[in-house]
Design brief:
By secondary structure, the chain is of the alpha/beta class. The chain contains ten helices and 15 strands. Keywords: Kinase, Transferase.
Length: 313
């Protein structure tokens, strides 16, 4: 199917995103000279940009592509948490984030000089969410699942939001979830749920794949599908695109377009294409197209996705 047809079919489908939400920050500036204190550049700050990351970024991508998105996660009761929740609201997702008293919101700050990231500072609590906050998150997840979303997307960055109780709840409701996707740094804890789709980077599965190219991933097809218990596994190879392995279809290798890659948009495009009835190959191609699109080309209406539609299928 053509992209426009798929996009028309997935408009307004309900999607639930649950997992680790992050505040991503870019401090961009111009290097002016070398510091006298150390062999590092002195950067004059030109701009600061803050956006939702992790589960918040996934929710934003789904919403931008036209889905009705709900996000369940947790922030601290600090300024970073307030900023992150405001980003979720601004992006148009239904906010069911939990505010954990005394917890520091996970924040990733990048220093960018002349277009290059020269440093990253991570801050925030990543210990397992506990106490009243954990109970509230579980309640909000149960309420969201009761609304019968067409797809549930798990974002597991190992930042403490998704504990055993969350996995147990999802396992108990698994038969009621038409499409379960897991985007995780460690997929092993999710295998018992039998995900419909798992999206990983090559680094994540380096213990299974003996090599760093598409051929090596394809050669490990059986082991990857068995170890993840997933119907479809998508492995990102950065500049080489992705390799998509399936229980019921041929292996698909997509090519990456030059330039930055939007991983949340890739996941959203793949899931929504599947909801629209696309084959694995069509969903992979749609996801790759979304990953290569500029953020402003991801818009709620099909008529506004010109930058995506202009690219041949």
């Amino acid at each position: 199917m053509k992209f426009a047809e798929l996009a028309t079919r997935w408009q307004d489908r309900p999607v639930l995103v649950v997992g680790d939400a992050v505040l991503d920050c870019w401090l961009s500036g111009t290097p002016t000279r070398m510091s006298r204190e150390a062999p590092v550049p002195v950067i004059t700050l030109d701009a600061t940009r803050e956006v939702g990351g992790g589960a918040a970024a996934l929710a934003a991508a789904f919403t931008a592509l036209g889905a009705r998105t709900t996000v369940v996660g947790a922030t601290g009761d600090d300024d970073a948490g307030a900023t992150l929740r405001s980003k979720v609201w601004d992006d148009g997702a239904t906010d069911r984030m939990v505010v954990a008293v005394g917890r520091r919101t996970l924040t990733k700050r990048r220093v960018v000089a002349a277009g290059q990231v020269v440093a990253r500072f991570d801050d925030g609590d990543t210990a397992p969410l506990g106490g009243a906050a954990a109970d509230t998150l579980l309640q909000r997840l149960a309420e969201s699942l009761a609304e019968s979303p067409a797809a549930v997307v798990v974002c597991d960055l190992g930042a403490g939001t998704l504990g055993r109780a969350v996995r147990s709840l999802l396992a108990a409701r698994r038969l009621d979830v038409p499409l379960l996707t897991v985007d995780a740094l460690d997929v092993a804890p999710w295998a018992h749920l039998g995900p419909d789709l798992i999206t990983v980077t090559l680094d994540t599965v380096s213990g299974v794949v003996e090599g760093t190219n598409a051929a090596a991933v394809a050669a490990a097809r059986g082991m990857l599908l068995r170890s993840t218990a997933a119907a479809v596994v998508s492995v990102t190879l950065d500049a080489e695109g992705t390799v998509v392995l399936s229980q019921d279809a041929d292996t698909v290798h997509t090519s990456a377009a030059p330039g930055p890659r939007n991983q949340p948009a890739y996941v959203a495009g793949f899931v929504l294409a599947q909801l629209a009835g696309a084959t694995v190959a069509e969903a992979a191609a749609t996801a790759q197209r979304c990953a290569a699109a500029r953020p402003r080309d991801l818009a709620p209406a099909v008529t506004k996705i010109g930058g995506l539609e202009a690219t041949p299928a």
